[in-house]
Amino acid sequence: MDHKEAYDLIESYAFGTLEAELYPAIQNHLDSGCDECISRLREASELSLRLAQSIPMVDPPARIETRIMDKIRNDRQRIKSPGPLKIQLPYWAAAAAAVLIVALGSGYVALSFQNIKLERRLVETSDVTALLNSPGMQFVDLQGVDPNPQAFGKVVIDPDKGAAVVYMYKLPQTPEGMEYQLWVMHEGKPTSAGVFTVTADGNAMLALNELDDMGDIGSFLVTIEPAGGQTSPTGMMYLTGPNVFHSDN
Amino acid sequence: MEEKNLEKPGSDDSKEMGVDDILLSLIGDGDPAALSRFYKNKSRFIYSLVLNIVRNDTDAEEITEDVFLKIWQNARSFDRSRGVAMAWVATIARRLAIDRTRSKYYKDRGREVDIESHNADNSENVMVGDNADTTTAGIEAREIKEALDQIGDTHRELIRLSYFEGYSHSMIAEKLKTPLGTVKTRIREAVVQLRGILDVKV
Questions:
Q1: Considering only CB atoms, which chain B residues are within 8 Å of A63?
Q2: Where is B155: in which H helix or E strand?
C-alpha cells in the first residue's frame, strides 16, 4: 500500500471501521514511520476518543475480569519474555537481595534502590504495582531541560509508605565515564538518590523506598556526573520536577 | 501542589506521561497485577463503548474480554507518538466490536437488522442530545451534538455513518451512491472541522 492509499484510510483505521483485510497494510505503513500518516492518526483517534466519551456508561459484569485474569495466568510463555521497559542500573550485580540500602549523609533520608534486572522482573513489577494500587498514590511529572526538552519522567509516590518509583524516558546516552544521578531536594539541599544509565531507548526506572520526611521534599533533579556519582550536583541538569511533594501543613 | 489523582475516567492526560502509559509499560512487561489495575480503571468505559456498538450483553462481554487480552498481548506495541493510551485502546475496542457486527456469526444470529436500527438509535441519541441528562456522558453528548450542528448536513451524515454506525468508506460510498474518493475527502474535512470545534488536542 502506498502513502496516498494509506493516508486516505487513516480515519477508518482510527475509527475501527476499516475492512479487516486492510489493517495489516496500514499498520505496516505506520510502522515505516510516515510522519504525515501518524499525525493524521493522532488527530482522528483522539477525536474518536472524544466522541466515545458521549456514550452512556454501563457497569460491566464482574465475571469478565475473572475470565481475563484466569486466561492470562496460563500465559506462561509471555511472562518469561523480556518487555520493553529495559532497565539498566549499575547496582544489580551486587544486589543479592532485592533491595540495596544506601545510607545517605544527611541522615534524615534513607533511600534504597531496587535493581530491575530481567530475572527479577516479576518480583519487582509486583512491588511497583503494589505501589500503583495504593489508594493514596500520587504522581508528578519531570520535565526535560534544554537542550534536551524531549526527555521526560514521572514519579509515582505512595506518601503513606514512603515509597516512590521514578520513570525516566528519552534521556540521551551518557558518554563513557559518565552516569546520570538522581537528586532529591530537601529544603533546597540535594541528596543523592543514586546513579544510573539508560537503555538504548533512553529509558530508566528507579524504585525508592523509605523516603522519610516527604513533606520536606521540594523536587527531583537528574544531572550528569562522573561515573559513581558526586556528593552534590556538578554536571548539567537533564530533568527537573519542581515542588513535587509539598506538604500542605 | 502539582499532585494529580490516579483515578481518572476514560481518558488520560494528553501529552503527559500518565498512569495509563505506566500501566501499559508494566502490562508489556507481563505483569498481571498491572492488567488488573488497568481493567479496574478502564473496563466500564470499554464495556460501554463495545455494548453501544454490538447492542448485546453476551457479545459485549466476549468482546470486552478480547479487548483486554489484546491489550495484554500487544501492550508493547503501543506507541505514544501515535496518540494517547486510551485512544489506542478505544480503537482496539471499536475495531473488535465493529468486526463482530460484520461477522457471519452476527448476521446468522439475525443481528444485522438489530444493529442497523440500534446504531441509528445511538447516533440519534448523541446527535439529538438530551438537555435533561446531567451526567458526564450527557454533557459530552450535548457538546458533540452542538459541534455536529455546525459542520453541515453532508459532513454530519458522514460522521454519523462512519463513526456512530461503523460503516467503512466503501460501505458509505455504496450507501450514498457517492464516489469513494469524495467520501474519503469529506470525512477528512468533517474530522478537521470537528476537532477544531471540539478543541481536541493532539
A1: 61
A2: helix B153-159
Question: Which residues in chain B have Cβ-Cβ distances shorter than 8 Å to A137?
Answer: 6
Nearest-Cα residue of chain A relative to residue B142: A54
> Each residue of A23-69: pLDDT tens digit?
889 989 998 889 999 999 988 888 898 888 888 889 999 999 999 99
Kindly report the nearest CA distance between residue A59 and chain B, in angstroms.
5
A/B interface, count of CB pairs below 8 Å = 267
CATH pick for B110-197 out of 3.30.420.40, 1.10.520.10, 1.10.10.10, 3.30.390.80: 1.10.10.10
Cell, residue B170: 466503501
As a whole number of angstroms, the distance between CA A184 and CA A14 comes to 42
The closest alpha carbon to B184, from B169, B167, B166, belongs to B169
pLDDT at residue A107, rounded to an integer: 24
ipTM over 0.95: no
Domain regions of chain B by residue span: 15-109, 110-197
Domain hosting A97: range is: 92-241
B104/A contact by beta carbon, under 8 A: no
Q: Which of A48, A54, A75, A117 to mutate to test binding with chain B, by most B CBs within 10 Å of its CB?
A: A54
Judgement on whether residues A107 and A12 belong to the same structural domain of the protein: no
The correct answer on CATH 2.40.50.1020 for the domain covering B15-109 is: no
Cell representation of residue B55 = 447492542
CB contact under 8 A, B94 and A56: no
Instruction: For cell 494500587, name the residue.
Output: A133
**pLDDT tens readout for residues B143-185:** 888 888 899 899 999 998 888 888 888 889 999 999 999 998 9
